[in-house]
Amino acid sequence: MDGLTSIRTVADHFGLPISTLHYWERRGLVVPHRRARQRFYDTAQVYRVALIQPWRRSGLMGIDEIAALLSRTENWRDVVDSRMADIDAQQDRPAAARRYLGHLKQCDHGPSLEDCPRF
Length: 119
Prior knowledge:
Layout: E1 5-6, H1 7-14, H2 18-26, E2 33-35, E3 38-41, H3 43-58, H4 63-71, H5 76-106
């Protein structure tokens, strides 16, 4: 159909509920073509869905941030920097917890960490 893909096909391909694509449309993230009251996506819009899905799935990027990235507003680089900082912080927390637990395991003070000079 003129290089257009139905909403059902797009939803099935990406494992998304159709309601998610409707929501993304309402928020301006995707713009389907309409024929006989049905939604169809051209290649560019399918590509946008492919970009949006992992950003949303990761939980690190909200709809407004995704909209800023897709629209290339002035602050899109700030959005990327902020997300990268969040990812770095998320990676640092488990590493710090691991160091803490490793120290706890090795500490001569045992579970009485209030006596440990490094606590």
